[in-house]
Amino acid sequence: MTSQNLTDEQLVEIIREKNQELYSEIIKRYQIKLSHYLKKFIYDSDELEDVLQVVFIKSYKNLYGFNIHKKFSSWIYRIAHNEAINYLKKNFRGQISLEEVEYKIIDEKINLHDDIDKILLKKKVEKYLSDISLKYRGPLILFYFEQKSYQEISDIMHIPKNTVGTLILRGKQILKENLSQRKNYEK
């Protein structure tokens, strides 16, 4: 069986037992996913790469602490989430950037607009998503852009599953209110 056919958890078990070089497979599997996630918090690509490298170093160093009976993706996303929060606490200077496909996802799922020009709305969503407290922004990004389940978000953020739903609902309400207030202000 090749390493590509193994689950993340099986791969971690092999890495811990006998073949640390296989960690490169973990990096291959998660580099794009975690970059995509971190991009919602870290705008500068060089800084994003630095944080991503820290995520992989920390996950490698703590691999023996991972419980192979749990989901590896939630564990590594938790490390990435913590590093994004640490970065923001030290360096936050700007806003996040949504890709076109992500904008379509949030537009469809949250029903953000009726008659607002889509390009202007996209910029507003980016700005107001950046302005939303990390408490709500993290769950919104994980749910809508990373398509994580409530359980996975609960595992990543170390909060109860019911709290995840509450944070997503409140985050959506804040985002809608901010966009609505801005829309009314511009009239």
TrEMBL record:
Gene3D superfamilies: 1.10.1740.10, Winged helix-like DNA-binding domain superfamily/Winged helix DNA-binding domain. GO terms for biological process: DNA-templated transcription initiation. Pfam families: Sigma70_r2 (PF04542), Sigma70_r4_2 (PF08281). The keyword Transcription applies. InterPro entries: RNA_pol_sigma-70-like, RNA_pol_sigma-70_dom, RNA_pol_sigma70_r2, RNA_pol_sigma70_r4_t2, RNA_pol_sigma_r2, RNA_pol_sigma_r3/r4-like, WH-like_DNA-bd_sf. Residues 27-91 form the RNA polymerase sigma-70 region domain. Residues 126-173 form the RNA polymerase sigma factor 70 region 4 type domain. It comes from the Bacteria. The keyword Transcription regulation applies. Coiled coil: none annotated. GO terms for molecular function: DNA binding; sigma factor activity. CDD domains: Sigma70_r4. Keywords: Sigma factor, Transcription, Transcription regulation. Belongs to the sigma-70 factor family. ECF subfamily. NCBIfam families: sigma70-ECF. This is RNA polymerase sigma factor. It comes from Candidatus Roizmanbacteria bacterium CG22_combo_CG10-13_8_21_14_all_35_9.
